[in-house]
Amino acid sequence: ADSPAIAAAANVRFALHAIAQQFTQETHLTIRPSYGSSGQLTQQILNGAPFEIFISADSHYPLLLEEAEKTQGRLVVYAIGRLAIIKSRDSNLLLDAKLQGLSQALTNNQIARFAIATPAHAPYGLRAKDALIQQQLWKPIENKLIYGENVAQAAQFALSNSAQGGIVALSLVKAPAFHEHGEFSIIDQGLHQPLLQSMVLTSTAGATAKHFFQYLQSDTARDIFVQYGFDLPRQD
Amino acid sequence: MTEDNGLHCSINIQSPISLTADLHCKAGDILAVLGPSGAGKSTLLKTLAGLIKPVSGIISVGGKQWSNINSAIHLSPQQRHIGYVPQHFGLFEHLSTIDNILIGLKHLPKSDRQRQANKWLHLVDLLPQKHKRPNQLSGGQRQRVALARALAREPSVLLLDEPFSAVDNQTREMLHIALLKLKSEIRCPVVMVTHNHQEAMLLADNILIVDAGKTVQQGTVSELLQSPKSIAVARQLGINNIFPVTVTDHNVSQQLTWFSLAGSTVCTADILPRTIGDTVMCLLPHDANIHRHLDEVESNHTHFELQLISSYELHNRTQILGFIAGTPTALRLEINRKLPSTASSSSIYVSIPATEIRLITEFE
Amino acid sequence: MTEDNGLHCSINIQSPISLTADLHCKAGDILAVLGPSGAGKSTLLKTLAGLIKPVSGIISVGGKQWSNINSAIHLSPQQRHIGYVPQHFGLFEHLSTIDNILIGLKHLPKSDRQRQANKWLHLVDLLPQKHKRPNQLSGGQRQRVALARALAREPSVLLLDEPFSAVDNQTREMLHIALLKLKSEIRCPVVMVTHNHQEAMLLADNILIVDAGKTVQQGTVSELLQSPKSIAVARQLGINNIFPVTVTDHNVSQQLTWFSLAGSTVCTADILPRTIGDTVMCLLPHDANIHRHLDEVESNHTHFELQLISSYELHNRTQILGFIAGTPTALRLEINRKLPSTASSSSIYVSIPATEIRLITEFE
Amino acid sequence: MDWQALLLSIKLSLVTTILLIPLAIITARVLAFRNFAGKHWLEALLMTPLILPPTVIGYYLLVGLGQQSWLGQTLQSLTGQPLVFHFSGLVLASLLINIPFALQPIQRAFESIPEDVRDASACCGLTFWESLLKVELPLVWPGIVTAIVLCFSHVLGEFGVVLMIGGNIEGETKTLSIAIYDSVQAFDFQSAGRMSFVLLIFAVSTLAISSHFARKMGVQHDRR
Amino acid sequence: MDWQALLLSIKLSLVTTILLIPLAIITARVLAFRNFAGKHWLEALLMTPLILPPTVIGYYLLVGLGQQSWLGQTLQSLTGQPLVFHFSGLVLASLLINIPFALQPIQRAFESIPEDVRDASACCGLTFWESLLKVELPLVWPGIVTAIVLCFSHVLGEFGVVLMIGGNIEGETKTLSIAIYDSVQAFDFQSAGRMSFVLLIFAVSTLAISSHFARKMGVQHDRR
Ligand SMILES: Nc1ncnc2c1ncn2[C@@H]1O[C@H](COP(=O)(O)OP(=O)(O)OP(=O)(O)O)[C@@H](O)[C@H]1O
Ligand SMILES: Nc1ncnc2c1ncn2[C@@H]1O[C@H](COP(=O)(O)OP(=O)(O)OP(=O)(O)O)[C@@H](O)[C@H]1O
Ligand code: MOO
Ligand SMILES: [Mg+2]
Ligand SMILES: [Mg+2]
């Protein structure tokens, strides 16, 4: 059978990996996920990239695809993302849900570099910016920011300890690989706009893709999303 | 003009230098090209090879036109089937000696090539160097590879640019004999640039003098020696003792001309009419008499003092190089005995029978 | 050995070829190096220049050691202050003719350099080409740039590798005179590789023969001509008529030796004792008598038939090249009259007084 | 270790090199030996990919060949598939980017064949093809090896353009370069390290082999 | 148009080229003229950055210079700032990556100086420095120009390593190559197009100028 290429926002990387494994076990069908920032992937699909499902970090980019008539069926909100502030084990930044430790460290000039995803095309970057603005930290931190090309790269920068910390997706932090290197704290939901993560079938989607699209909405998948720190949308 | 099976050439080129050339060479003949350094000899050879395109004129070989600019004919070097030894050899550095020769033998059946190549390597005495690359060869060895490569092609015209300039006397003699033997075998026109007039005279049936981008004179050795068109021609033929003198008197009926040489007035037989005050070329023979003292000189001989520069004995004859005392005119003399011992390092007296002095008018 | 201010060299090198060399040259003298192509002449010169390091031996100039491998002395070419003309010129392609010369004049005050460079360019007759780059020059012009560059340095030793090989007769004569004049001025040892024995004899005070990676013999022209150590030496000196013969009889008391030459038995005076059956070298003079018919030959003359290869007349003498009929032995003869006309293209008879035939033993 | 990515990278490098080198040899020879009007402009044009950042080239390819462009749509309707985000698109991009890397060393090598040698080859009666095969190619061989190594390795390492017009679709456009980048982002330093190490070994052995070849078959141009 | 990114890219290119070329000239000369044990290994080692994908180099730099490494910590305590995510880190990376681009053309050029000419230069009494300045450098000049153009342009276009170790900090590590990539991802085709166009013009004029220089000062090696 065919093995559809699937474009997925970087933040769902570990969750999707677990779901795909389960899917393959149950159906003996495989998928080929590619990860990037939601904006980058949208761009690629618009220019003809042969992805059959687009799993975004928000709903804005899937809507763009719908407008461009690159989709079949409507978009589906599959999870609600959460932000986390992280640091490597060697950094002595204090982590908390209201970013007070960060604020403290900034006043004490203890922050040289701080990582977020690029707001230009990564929704998690945009929401991280929201949170920093909300806590009046944007001005002092702006020239210390390093931007990951997507949220996963931002996390990797923060973990390298070359940056003292970063704001990334909670779903990345839940991965076992992260625990070897870093620590985190969930950020208060009130500090940013909600991340209503949607997915959509593209116009080239085939049977396997459609099957997987359904599977992503199954209970098995929803359980896995929760394991990886996502909130779930109300089921209609 | 193109009835026989020789090489005829009457061309004009403009780039890289301007050169006007008229020459012909019968099949089986060797035409030696002599001329001062920078005269355009190599350029002429390249044009014959088809590497330089003339702006006008005709080159034909055996009645076939190789170049005729008016008729837009210009055969490529490949089409001319020539053998060419460039002045700087142009060896293929990536090929062994034998492969350098084999590469030019396409016209032979495959089975014969190896034999032919070995034959020519043997001829130029390079069999032991057969598998060396050019950069492992000495200057003379490199030159011989280039020579063998050209000869082995059994070409329709052989073009040699100073082909023996880098080899020693012994090797050269060997190669001379090889070339002379070959010439009757291959029966193609051979044009050979050389700067050795003895070599030219020994090998060539005809000599062509090139000077300052022009072919000045072509003829047999004796034709050229008899009436060289200019000092340059005479010099190229190894006539060293030639210099301008001024006519002081002339007697038409007796065919005598007087001129002054090294302070004294000399009278010599001279069939051409001269005007007093004219500059003519005086040609002294190489044979001369050498004296320790002035009083030994015979009366009808012209004599002058010679400031010796150098001398050596070879084959029972003494070669002498010196200045006419008090002038910058150098003479080269040859006497058939040893130099008088007292004179070995300073001045001696030279006498020459006035009848052996010739005067020629420089044509251009 | 190093008391005078000349060049002394006794060395052994191993790479790129193995070469053993013993030579000396007084200041103000010219030592000509002759030898077959590939003998190691250029390699020897490079070693003197300091470009190749000997494995053992000493080079000293004016009492100063340039190389003494035992004492770990090995001056760099820069420290030797030499003038060197490489066989392939080694011009700086990016510099004009004059700049090629100026670059070697560091030892002069800045203000003098231009004058000096112009002086030498004038001497080699290249002033008009002053601003040309090497790739715009002819072969001979390139060589003269290299020569001027070396001379202009006023070196402590002058090393010339076939410095006149690419120039015409006229230019060469001019350069010969320049070099001879210069030699007394600069008073440094001059080592000159050449493959022209006449040039060597004309210019050199001493001649060194190199053969197969060894210096074979050094001496004055007459020393070498009198007793060449081997055929190779004799050939390099322009003694062409030399070939092996077998002793058929010998009379010690009368000092006579018989041998067979071209079918007939010849008797010649010979002071050395010979054994019948020995191979010795027979040396025929260049002077010979030429006859149309056998009956013209004088009785005490050795005679044989000569198959003519080529001949030419120059300076009232005829140069002849031919084979002893029925043998592959080539002779070069010189007679002081024209060739008999009937003989112009086939066989003639040659006679030589038996007294003029010399026998020598080849040493090695 | 992502073997698929490694294979894809090698395939891309091979295809590019094999397609490009013969074209480069022909073009280099023309540029080295012939003079024609506009030659300097052509030379400059062929050099531009060298100076342009790969993302600029990626941008122009995306705009020119993407589905939003007229050319991209025409090509897609002709070939049935889009060029961008497809292996053929990567090949096209690699070809374009590597023109100077293939051309330059070979052209320099042709130019350094002395006139004497070319004259001699013509006068030995060698036809165009014989001269090319038996004289010129052996003499320019070191230049060709350099070109091959440059192209091959440059394609192997290309990242910007691939990311821009290739995405990183497994088995299609996900080259090793991108796979390593991806692993690092997945905090999978182990596979990143392993892949890097394999490539390091590969690089060193490729170099050893190619320099051996160049030395064996090449000729030191010696002016003797 | 991101002028800051353009300036940063040019600055990085200049710094790298200026630091690297003199080192390359010295090293190339040694490699061309001297023989020593392990020379072939050294040559292979110096070539590896050519064959390794930039992401591999980026990975090793990240691991080697990052703050979790011993080297990275030492360097940081010495210089007071981390090398990664900083301009100095980019310079270091660029230097490393461009070694072969700087070295190769210059070494080839040195190697093609005929032995005769070097002999003549020694015999003209030129000291090491005089010979280098008056004879060798003019003769290898075309090789140096090639090296400069290669390095400059290669740094200008470098993307993978920068992305991997530099992030894209504005005015610090966000080079033009990354700025263009970013604009395209952010649907900002207008600025991407503008930046690409500026670079295209820049590339063509750089080429015109450098080829003019190479032609004017260079020498056709002619074997006459
Ligand atoms: N690099 C090398 N490798 C191997 N053999 C070499 C090398 N260089 C020179 N030779 C050999 O060394 C010998 C001597 O060379 P050299 O150049 O000294 O000869 P030469 O006497 O100057 O000859 P010529 O008169 O032809 O110039 C030659 O036989 C040559 O083949
Ligand atoms: N590319 C060029 N540009 C300018 N002048 C040139 C060029 N090539 C040759 N010449 C000039 O043309 C003239 C003739 O050169 P050519 O090589 O034919 O001389 P030649 O008679 O063979 O001399 P030689 O005996 O020294 O080899 C020379 O004066 C030389 O300076
Ligand atoms: O689209 Mo992302 O997951 O914010 O890089
Ligand atoms: Mg010439
Ligand atoms: Mg030699």
Automatic annotation (TrEMBL), chains B, C:
Native source species: Parashewanella spongiae
UniProt protein name: ABC transporter ATP-binding protein
Matches recorded under InterPro entries: AAA+_ATPase (IPR003593), ABC_SmlMolc_Importer (IPR050093), ABC_transporter-like_ATP-bd (IPR003439), ABC_transporter-like_CS (IPR017871), P-loop_NTPase (IPR027417)
Swiss-Prot/TrEMBL keywords: ATP-binding, Nucleotide-binding, Transport
Signal peptide range: none
GO molecular function terms noted in the UniProt entry: ATP binding; ATP hydrolysis activity
Residue ranges annotated for the ABC transporter domain, each copy included: 2-237
A Pfam short name: ABC_tran
SUPFAM superfamilies: P-loop containing nucleoside triphosphate hydrolases
TrEMBL record, chains D, E:
Cited SUPFAM superfamilies: MetI-like
Transmembrane segments: 12-32, 44-63, 83-103, 139-165, 195-214
Membrane topology: Multi-pass membrane protein
Entry GO MF terms: molybdate ion transmembrane transporter activity
Keywords linked to the UniProt accession: Cell inner membrane, Cell membrane, Membrane, Molybdenum, Transmembrane, Transmembrane helix, Transport
CDD domains in the record: TM_PBP2 (cd06261)
Cell inner membrane recorded as keyword: yes
Subcellular location: Cell inner membrane; Cell membrane
ABC transmembrane type-1 domain mapped to chain residues: 6-210
Keyword match DNA repair: no
GO cellular component labels: plasma membrane
Domain of life: Bacteria
Functional description taken from the UniProt entry: Part of the binding-protein-dependent transport system for molybdenum; probably responsible for the translocation of the substrate across the membrane.
Family: Belongs to the binding-protein-dependent transport system permease family. CysTW subfamily.
Annotated protein name in UniProt: Molybdenum transport system permease
Species for this entry: Parashewanella spongiae
